[in-house]
Specification:
Layout lengths: L19 H11 L5 H20 L4 E3 L3 E8 L2 E4 L6 E4 L2 E8 L1 H10 L3 H8 L1
Antiparallel strand pairs: 1-2, 2-5, 3-4
Helix pairs in contact: 1-2
Length: 122
């Protein structure tokens, strides 16, 4: 019986970012009873469901993690930075993420962002 289980370790991005394929590998590694292709299908389904809800203007709340919502930016007059000419900027829908309380506490407990704060002060 051939197995398509995740056997490779998720690579760690040098810049500290995690891309979707790394997320899939990490979840597959933590759940060896699941095939990597099934984990990828699940991750895509979750992200697509969130994106579809936002496209409808709905708010998506994941308790303990955070909430996704859409904010509208009104149409306005902008300026072309090269020529200085006034231009019309149309209304835009901007996705917004607000961390949940548990996530904020977890990040602060782990000291995430302390290096950036130290650099800004010094």
């Amino acid at each position: 019986m051939a197995t398509n289980r995740a056997s490779t370790r998720p690579r760690t991005s040098e810049d500290g970012r995690m891309i979707k394929s790394e997320l899939v590998l990490k979840i597959a590694e933590q759940n060896p009873h699941l095939y990597q292709r099934d984990v990828e299908t699940l991750v895509n389904a979750i992200l697509d469901t969130i994106a579809d809800a936002l496209a409808r203007g709905d708010r998506v709340e994941l308790r303990g993690f955070g909430a996704f919502s859409v904010k509208r930016r009104e149409a306005r007059r902008g300026r072309n930075p090269r020529t200085g000419e006034a231009v019309a900027v149309s209304e835009k829908a901007i996705p917004v993420f607000k961390t949940g309380k548990e996530m904020r506490l977890r990040l602060n407990k782990a000291g995430i962002g302390d290096e950036m704060g130290a650099e800004a002060v010094g």
